[in-house]
Amino acid sequence: MSRDWSVTVKPAFIGSSRAASVIGGWSLITATILFGVVFVYLAVTFDYPGILDRPASEVLPRLLSLGVSGRAVWVIYGLIPLLLVPTAIGVDAATRQVAPRVAQAAVIAAVLSAVTMMVGLLRWPSLQWRLGLAYADASPAARETIAVVFDAANSFLGNYIGEFLGELFLNVFFLCASVALARSAGRSRRWLLYAGAAATLFGGVAMLRNVTNVVAPIAAANNTILPIWMLVLGIALVTHRASGEVAGSRMYTS
Fold this sequence. Notes:
Helix content is 82%, strand content 0%. By secondary structure, it is mainly alpha-helical. The chain has one domain (2-253). Helix 1 (2-46) packs antiparallel against helix 3. The longest helix is centred in the middle third of the chain and has 46 residues, at 140-185. It starts with a helix and ends with a helix.
């Protein structure tokens, strides 16, 4: 009877875990591609992210000039971090049998990262957009007040919540995911542990760019390292096989 249970349950568990890891991996790959496409669009049409250092008198009219389509792009940009959630679920499904605590930490970090990054990005098509509309017809005195609110929103929602906390939780997720996947796959994926640690280190230093200009070269390098690492991690999750998974499935079905 126990053998019959193993035959039916074990392969089913492996199959569901594989499906979740594949979906999670493709979610991260999709997020990487979408981030790149939207970032290029905003760089060309909005001079992003360089425009973030300019005053409200210049930024807000440029924001409104993007029109409805540009506002929709900002909404899409702000929702992309949600793809971290299925990615983390995939990591958890693939590794919970070997590293349950690390897998759970990865899920928590991914959710926190998604929420904080969304708060930072979605300020543009919501709060900043409304400020832009008010700024267009405001008196000189009112424009000064709007500029103060604009700067405060960029500092709190953008720099602190979206960038610092969002990237902090993102780097924690990357580290937990690489540790969990490396443990689950065994020696064949030991390189994931070192690659994840390196990516986390670069990201951890880069997120201090708003504190000191000393880390500017590392932050610039991280703009290339981050998407490469996200693609690598996504592919690793899609192709993940737990150590002994194949042999185990054969044993239970023989």
